[in-house]
Design a protein that fits this description.
This protein has about 120 residues and is mainly beta. The relative contact order is 0.31.
Length: about 120
């Protein structure tokens, strides 16, 4: 059964915007922390942003602060990543992840999230 499904990726020109979505199935119930990671070809995976849903607290990587916004809609069981003022260096496969508590945003922490999606591609030219 599929637990996290990303969507919303695509191709956009530099300076443009995209909104990624990550819908959760009932199987990730109790996962209070959700996050976005990304990985570009030939580069290590890096954390982009996380949200701890009970408090609404958010953490962002310095590279996206002021441009990206993470949010969650409980009624829709969906997490979003609004990406504005996109740059070519934002091009990557974007993954969502979920865990009971937030294990961090360093690249290695991706596998400490119990649930992980298959990714959606973002290309900025």
């Amino acid at each position: 059964h599929v637990q996290l499904v990303e969507s919303g990726g695509g191709s956009v020109q530099a300076g443009g915007s995209l909104r990624l979505s990550c819908i959760s199935s009932e199987y990730v119930y109790g996962s209070h922390c959700m996050a976005w990671f990304r990985q570009a070809p030939g580069k290590e995976r890096e954390g982009v942003a996380s949200i701890y849903k009970p408090l609404g607290s958010t953490v962002y990587d310095d590279s996206v602060k002021g441009r990206f916004t993470i949010s969650h809609d409980t009624a829709k069981s969906t997490m979003y990543l609004q990406m504005n003022r996109l740059k070519p260096e934002d091009s990557a496969m974007y993954y969502c992840a979920a865990a009971r508590l937030c294990p961090g945003l360093d690249g290695g922490s991706f596998y400490r999230y119990k649930y992980r999606g298959q990714g959606t591609q973002v290309t900025v030219s």
